[in-house]
Design a protein that fits this description.
- By secondary structure, this protein is of the alpha/beta class.
- The chain has a single domain, classed as 5'-nuclease (Rossmann fold).
- Helix content is 49%, strand content 10%.
- The protein is built from nine helices and five strands.
- α5 packs across α6.
- The longest helix has 15 residues, at 92-106.
């Protein structure tokens, strides 16, 4: 019998972690409104987080991005009160993890262009998050490659995918 690889273990774990019981990390764009049905999901996510039915952990770099002057006020208002990871300084293994993730994200882009995204993903992994919610096309397109670098418990999902998992767990939850 073959010994399971990290990737095969990854597929067994996928989508099996209850969103209410695990940390959830978001990218700076996760709560952007675009005038579509996704806006209702943004409202729902914010309501669940405000009611403390979700444990949202925001990466320090994401928090910095959200404080940008062009970030919509409703996003700032929703995100800034949440728990965030205060990064005191990185050790060598954390630098190495970020470099590996950035290498996957970089593709043909300018070196270091995706260093912030790599840091966000690495921080989500370091804080034990089960879900990293993003709408960044590059991250979503590369999630299969990123799986080998991130813990098997961390899923990269869109807000819509997150609520598919959330609703499945809510439907199975004893009342």
């Amino acid at each position: 019998m073959l010994k399971p690889t990290r990737l095969s273990v990854r597929k067994e774990v996928r989508g099996n972690l209850a969103p209410r019981r695990n940390n959830i990390s978001i990218d700076a764009n996760a709560l952007d409104r675009d005038g579509s049905a996704r806006d209702a999901l943004v409202d729902r996510f914010q309501a669940l987080a405000s009611a403390r039915r979700l444990n949202v952990v925001v990466a320090c770099g994401v928090r910095d991005e959200i404080q940008h002057p062009r970030t919509p006020a409703d996003v700032k208002e929703a995100v800034l009160p949440w728990i965030f990871n205060r990064r005191p300084g990185l050790i060598a293994s954390q630098h190495a993890d970020r470099y590996r993730v950035a290498s996957v994200l970089q593709g043909n882009a300018h070196p270091a262009k995706h260093a912030a995204d790599a840091s966000h993903l690495s921080e989500a992994a370091e804080t034990g998050c089960a879900y990293f919610i993003t709408h960044d096309k590059r991250i979503l397109d590369k999630r299969d490659e990123l799986r080998s670098l991130l813990p098997p418990s961390l899923e990269i999902v869109t807000l819509t995918e997150f609520f598919e998992v959330f609703d499945r767990f809510e439907a199975e939850r004893p009342r």
